[in-house]
TrEMBL record:
Pfam families: S1. GO terms for molecular function: mRNA binding; structural constituent of ribosome. Keywords: Ribonucleoprotein, Ribosomal protein. Residues 20-96, 113-182 form the S1 motif domain. Binds mRNA; thus facilitating recognition of the initiation point. It is needed to translate mRNA with a short Shine-Dalgarno (SD) purine-rich sequence. This is S1 RNA-binding domain-containing protein. It comes from the Bacteria. It comes from Streptomyces sp. R39. GO terms for cellular component: cytosolic small ribosomal subunit. SUPFAM superfamilies: Nucleic acid-binding proteins (SSF50249). PANTHER family: 30S RIBOSOMAL PROTEIN S1, SMALL RIBOSOMAL SUBUNIT PROTEIN BS1C. Gene3D superfamilies: Nucleic acid-binding proteins. GO terms for biological process: translation. Belongs to the bacterial ribosomal protein bS1 family.
Amino acid sequence: MDGPSENPELWAFLESLHRGDRLSGTVAAIERFGVFVALDDGPSHPVFPGVGFITMPELSWRRFDTASDVVQVGQRVSCEFLQFDTTNLEARLSLRATQPDPFQAFADRIAVGQQLHGPVTELVPFGVFVRVADGIEGLVHLRELTSAPVESPSDVVQTGDEVTVVVTEIDRERRRLALSRRQVSSDDV
């Protein structure tokens, strides 16, 4: 877009922001690729409906289908500033950074070897996802589904089936939970 000479007020505002700053505003538009936010304290944008922009992954820690599952146009939001996007002359924001990460709280409560129970939420070629807590899903790899080899997860389970699993790995950094159905002892099922 334009440099500092074209939009000096906007450029100066964006350059004054620091990573971690809290900015509030109103959801101005919801697009396929993210959400525009009209910031309370900033100038308006020459092209976009708002100077603030939240990419889809930065909307929520939880899985969702569309941005409108998380926010609505006209909704007031408080976000964390991530970076100044000098190409689009916008403030990249995060809504999820203002909320506690449910995965970390969950990881504090569980341990490898612990048994959990929940519904199968999704079948993928390499295994199945199981919801083991509110907003927390783990992967049961294909080889961990049963003791006998299977070619497809649908040979063993369907979406919605309730299963018992054992925690085999907790990756806090990548927010991933590895589970096994094969390692559940038959006494416990």
